[in-house]
Amino acid sequence: MKPLKIGKNIYNVGVKDWNIRDFHGYSVYQGTTYNAFLIVDEKITLIDTVKSEFADQLLDNIAKIIDPKKIDYVISNHTEMDHSGSLPRLMHKIGEDKPLYCSKMGCKNLSLHFSQKWNYKAVENGEELSLGKRTLTFLETRMLHWPDSMFSYLKEDKILFSSDAFGQHYAGPENFDDEIGAAIMPHARKYFANILLPMAPLILKLLEKVNELGLEIDTICPDHGIVWRKDPSKIINTYLDWSSQEPQKKAVVVYDTMWHSTQAMAEAIAAGISEEGVSAKPIHIRSSHRSEIMTEVMDARGIIIGSPTINNGLFPTVSDLLTYMKGLKPKNKIGAAFGSYGWSGESVKLINLELEAMKFEVIDPGLKIQFVPDKESLAACIEFGKKIGKSIME
Ligand code: FEO
After folding, report:
1. Which ligand 1 atom is at minimum distance from the Cα of 195?
2. Which percentage of the chain shows pLDDT scores above 70?
3. Fewest CB atoms within 10 A around its CB: which of 105, 199, 306, 347?
4. Catalytic one among 34, 73, 78, 296?
5. Is 24 a catalytic residue?
6. Based on the domain organization, do 159 and 44 belong to the same domain?
7. Both 259 and 189 in a single domain?
């Protein structure tokens, strides 16, 4: 992408990755961007870099504004390689002795990624760095979402460089919130559900702290997706809402199936839940990416999981989803299990163990049906769904 003006002498020199579809297991159907920001002041400063394969593009973008060798300071807000991968090329180009500012954990983690003796400058929470006419303040955001993560705040321009926070995996012709409007929110939501959800309690604390500090924020520049310049409070308030994990009157009935029996159960259970006035839908795991499923899980109160029994265990895709879900630590859920089986029927018990491990309130021992559900069995599924629906409405 062409360097994009963010403010007076401030540019996004990052790149758009149009073709990526899998971001370490997260489906990115519309690509993503790796944003990097150049501040041209008395001290020319670059905040973050891009994935290593885009290093040439980053350097070209910088060169359209200034000679990259003129960069004085580099800031690394986050070590993950989508933002640090081009550091070796960049530092080689601009001079290995140029100061590289990062958090204390950033210094440690960068040195564990790159065997380079760079001129690391560890910064403390609240520490300021003068760029000449402007000042950057560093805010430690440990575990949001890595131990090294931090924000950088440009006081005079009221710009928050927020690293992964407030980002979205989206590459399009638009670059700002006012250009894309509400269409960006599903991307921001999916990003939150799949990356930031486990850190929701920390996000609440951080936003409280930002409020206490009285930071005025006119623009938020995340490292992925569009820049929030029209109404940054919209995404901040939405983060407050998502972080509170207040569930909706909604259930997801997530299942896999071998011969359509567990599918028939899922559809009948979802119908039963809906009869109680709760929004419910069956989701077939192999027809939906796990990251799409998690986006639905985020605000649902009821998480109902179905699996056939195969070789005395769970269907592998169900295990995959449960492992993924457990890592994202969703809260305030009720859960229940179901499944068709042939002769041993362990799946319901195994799902219940996973639901309990996630601290879901398991509201029923679960429903299992041998081989193909008949009319009576389907009626039992509807009753099971109604019980779940009633619990959600309580
Ligand atoms: Fe976009 Fe945690 O990296």
Report:
1. 2
2. 100
3. 105
4. 78
5. yes
6. yes
7. no
